[in-house]
Amino acid sequence: MKGALQLIIVLLIPVGLALGAFQLAQYGWDQVAEYQSPFTGALPSGKEGQPLVALRALTARIQRV
After folding, report:
1. Which one of 1, 8, 49, 50 is most buried, counting C-beta atoms within 10 A?
2. pLDDT at 55
3. Alpha-carbon span 61 to 53, nearest angstrom
């Protein structure tokens, strides 16, 4: 009887530690996912510029194919 109780306790300790670690990891990820950065707002609209020369050459090659 004493050996069975010890076995149950020995098995429950790692399970409890695993559940605690999972909850801690979940809490940490929630903090990352829900973070409101002051730098992630709407950007002001600007004027459209000319495409880069390399991009122009790439699109010309793609259109030829």
Report:
1. 8
2. 67
3. 13
**What are the structure tokens assigned to 3, written together?**
């050996």
Q: How many domains does the chain have?
A: 1
CA-to-CA separations, 52 to 6, 37, 43, 63, 64, in angstroms, rounded: 71, 31, 22, 17, 19
CA distances from 51 to 22, 44, 56, 58 (A): 48, 20, 6, 11
Evaluate the CA torsion angle 47, 50, 54, 60 in order and state its sign. Answer: positive
pLDDT of residue 15 exceeding 90, the answer is yes
Q: Is residue 20 part of a domain?
A: yes
Has residue 21 got a pLDDT over 90?
Answer: yes
Domain that holds residue 28: 1-36
